[in-house]
Amino acid sequence: MKNKEKILKEVSLKDVRIDDQFWNRRLEKNHTVTLKHQYQQLVKTGRLENFKKAAGLETGNFYGMFFNDSDVYKWLEAASYTLANINDLKLSKRVEDVVELLAEAQEDNGYLNTYFILEEPDKKWTNLGMMHELYCAGHLFQAAAANYRATGKRKLLDIACKFADLIDAKFRLSEHKGVPGHEEIELALVELYRVTENDNYLKLSEYFINNRGKHYFKKEVENLSNVAGINFEQNIENFDNFTMSKYYQEFFLDENNKYDGSYAQDHLPVREQNEIKGHAVRAMYLYSAVTDIVLETGEKSLLKALENLWHNMTKKKMYITGGIGSTHDFEGFTENYDLPNKSAYAESCAAVGSIMWNHRLLKLKKDAKFADLIERILYNGLLSGVALSGDKFFYVNPLASDGDHHRKGWFHVSCCPPNIARLLASLQKYIFLQKEKNIFVNLFISSKLNAEIMGHKVTLLQNSNYPWDSTMNYKISLETSFDFKLNIRFPDWADGADVFVNGREQRVKVKNNYLIIDRNWKDNDQLKIVFEMPVKRVKSHPAVKENRNHFALIRGPLVYCLEEVDNNVSLDEIIIPGDSQIKVKYDADLDGFNYLEGKAFTEKHSNWENKLYIEKREVVYEELKFKAVPYYLWDHRDPGQMRVWLREYNK
Q1: What InterPro entries does its record include (predicted)?
Q2: Which of 218, 362, 366, 545 sits in a 20 to 30 Å window from 565, CA-based?
């Protein structure tokens, strides 16, 4: 690794144990409910059966969407992460059985994709733009890397390497040119390289990244009769009757019927891109991979592009929940400041992808602003995607609803549920990072870190009642005293912080949005940090049209919303004055949460007396109390309206 000494290092999942009042129940549900529920769906919907057919163990045609293999791989990845810290013999056996099935289905030359094996074996690699062939391979590679790290077993890794070698020979080492339509394999190849130290996988990732923007999909659009899957047609969520030929042209041709590759980030070479465009999940996976390449090589031209793209996304194209991709039309980004609320797409998979990208940027840039965004997405745009029960999910995460949007147990296109599961199963890796004599604390999740710094064993215990309380307590356990730095994120929601070491207040430096406590640490040293956690009213940029004369409520990492079940009038009629004293209160319902309560007004309807218009001075206001709950909890009770952006009182 050429850039190794400059970046922050991940901590092994096995070296971090979470014991957190907020997260324990969610992670336990992910383990005991979500993984079981999703496996049952893999069986019920024919996803696993496709592998049995490909292996010759059963007869029949391919069933479902052409990228359904990827859901099996994401489930394997989530299950593998879970097994890193939990001894679950039944889950372990289930994982081994699925891995054995993949081995049976894999062709002798390494190829593994059940759609093409069963349906169009002679048209492999002919439809890279839409058929997700390389995308599915990428999820296999990520699952293999996770499984090997968690279990030390090589079988899935060997399957992945055999397929990766075939792809390398097909693309980088031959005359067959092309890039993935749906990015994913690029970042997965880097993971495979890090596990195996096989340089070919890193080179193949660079090959796909360096060749993006050369309009390879244009040739496929111009020769649709010769590509795989062109007659594929199914009824699916969000697209009704999905017809391959129709959507291929709609996604890759502009209004003048000319090629436009921006949907798949193929409009410009990556180094020339400065505005984030196209399908949001594709973009997140691509830029995660590009960041990985910079982490490995230190290439400055790619870094400059990443900085421009991140700035454009976070300053002009991101919801306050961290959600991205505002349009249903192609699940992606539109023009700057186009952030509608009720029709927001904000796909759960895009939230996962954004966390992945920001985690890589955090390792690269060593700036806690990326951890701030990880936290915002995690507690809002991502956590809203799975119900407290663990078996219902949001594909789409709007910021307003009239009561007709609800979580579902599964989807015909079900990329989001296993994506959420694998993120939660790997939550440990987002809490801490290391570099030489430094420990970086990025998320305030109660946990224990076992680390080694300059040959010294260190145990760091982090404890809090976060996100409801802003006091963070740390205990350091050492065999011998020595000097090292604790870098504690100074969150963007905090107005100030008091730092105490062994009960004595300390003055500390802030660098790159980290509080830096540099000292000779001794066994049983205690560190306490008390952040100021006020309720904040947040405004949108004036160019976000729907949010003019509205504001949102934030406390700590949480975005709050109004739900009809808590408020006795239509939410659009609630107006909150600037002098409303907003109080923080506790509700024991839904696993317990803090809600916000304050004074509000509505316009008295009876004052109109059958008039359509009256003068403003004639309007009479009635006072009431409003109740706002954390956004991630919405749609857990009686159905009804929901609003994140609230009307300002302008009497």
Answers
A1: 6-hairpin_glycosidase_sf, Beta-AFase-like, Beta-AFase-like_GH127_C, Beta-AFase-like_GH127_cat, Beta-AFase-like_GH127_middle
A2: 545
H or E segment and range at residue 54: helix 47-54
pLDDT in tens, 173-218: 997 889 999 999 999 999 999 999 999 999 999 999 999 999 999 9
Phi, psi of 56 (to 5 degrees): 80, 10
Domain that residue 641 falls in: 537-648
DSSP code, position 259: B
Q: Where are the alpha helices (DSSP H) in 337-444?
A: 348-365, 369-376, 416-425
The Cα–Cα gap between 89 and 361 comes to 36
544-560 mean pLDDT: 97
pLDDT band at 1 (very low <50, low <70, confident <90, very high): very low
Cα torsion 321, 327, 332, 337: sign:
negative
Helix (H, G, I), strand (E, B) or coil at 566: helix
Whole-angstrom Cα distance, residue 441 to residue 504?
Answer: 21
Final residue of a domain: which of 474, 498, 531?
531
If phi > 0 it is left, if psi is from -120 to 50 it is alpha, else beta; for residue 366 that is: left
Taking the whole predicted model, whether its pTM rises above 0.90 is answered as yes
Give dist(CA 477, CA 526) in Å, integer.
10
DSSP for 314-340, written as a single string: HHHSB-TTS-B--BTTTTEE-STT---
**Domain co-membership, 362 together with 303:** yes
Q: Are residues 413 and 463 in the same domain?
A: no
In the predicted model, what is the mean pLDDT of residues 618-635? 94
Please name the amino acid found at residue 216: Y
Structure token digits, residue 486: 């604790």
3-state secondary structure 489-502: ECCCCCCCEEEEEC
Distance CA 419, CA 34 (A): 11
| Number of domains present in the structure of the chain | 3
Token duo for residue 401: 């609803």
C-alpha to C-alpha distance for 422 and 394, rounded to whole angstroms: 15
Residue-by-residue DSSP string for 115-126:
HHHHT-GGGTTS
Q: How many CB atoms lie within 10 A of CB 620?
A: 13
C-alpha–C-alpha distance, residues 602 and 390, integer Å:
37
Name residue, tokens 């309807």: 605
Burial 397-410 (b: 16+ CB within 10 A, else e): bbbbbbeebebeeb
